[in-house]
Design goal:
Layout: E1 11-17, E2 26-32, H1 50-63, E3 66-72, H2 74-80, H3 82-95, E4 103-107, E5 119-122, H4 130-153, H5 159-162, H6 168-177
Parallel strand pairs: 1-4, 4-5
Antiparallel strand pairs: 1-2, 2-3
Helix pairs in contact: 1-4, 2-3
GO cellular component, one term: ribonuclease H2 complex
GO molecular function, one term: manganese ion binding
InterPro entries: RNase_HII (IPR022898), RNase_HII/HIII (IPR001352), RNase_HII/HIII_dom (IPR024567), RNaseH-like_sf (IPR012337), RNaseH_sf (IPR036397)
């Protein structure tokens, strides 16, 4: 069962979604949960069904002390690289909260100082601590919603299903139709890179 990191101080968990995608933004969320928060199904978003993620999204938004979500779009990813974009997304998600935290816990192993607030990086933190798991849910569902919207514009890439990840289907569509304004041009979009024209 997931637990609180420290019930004596105000903790914000943060996580991102979409780091390994070929198209769309990288999206991050930051969440402060109440000290008495409990939920039996809350876990890393990657191990939950779509139905459970959507139920949890509403539950978290209704019960969190504060939360923030932020997208970093393709042009900025291409300028500053995906690692910096992921960290920037987490910083902007923290900016979007209306409540300060005493400490930040981050899923993964890389982060940059944010407003002199202490932080700790936790490998697989989304499977260990409630606030990081909650952030993973909001980041994943927020990004999926965006990918569903842009799917309507370019249905041939089937982003409603693959969410921009490098599936065989997505790469075959890139090979056939070329790239869109939503693709990350700094990424290796096809294995040989020979058939894409910018």
């Amino acid at each position: 069962m997931l637990k609180h990191f420290n019930s004596k101080i105000i903790i914000s968990g943060t996580d991102e979604a979409g780091r390994g995608c070929l198209a769309g933004p990288v999206t991050a969320a930051a969440v402060i949960l109440p000290k008495n928060f409990r939920n039996k199904i809350l876990n890393d978003s990657k191990v939950l069904s779509l139905k459970k993620r959507n139920l949890l999204r509403s539950y978290i938004e209704d019960n969190a002390v504060a939360y923030g979500i932020a997208h970093i779009y393709m042009e900025e990813i291409d300028k500053i690289n995906i690692l910096n974009a992921s960290i920037l997304a987490m910083h902007r998600a923290l900016d979007n909260m209306n409540h300060p935290a005493d400490q930040i816990i981050v899923d993964g192993n890389r982060f940059k100082n944010y407003k002199q607030i202490p932080h700790e990086c936790i490998i697989k933190g989304d499977g260990k601590f409630l606030s990081i798991a909650a952030a993973s849910i909001l980041a994943k569902t927020g990004r999926d919603e965006y990918m569903q919207q842009i799917h309507e514009e370019y249905p041939m890439y089937n982003w409603q299903k693959n969410k921009g990840y490098p599936t065989k289907e997505h790469r075959a569509a890139i090979e056939k139709y070329g790239i869109t304004k939503y693709h990350r041009k700094s990424f290796k979009l096809l294995p040989d890179q020979l058939k894409i024209e910018f």
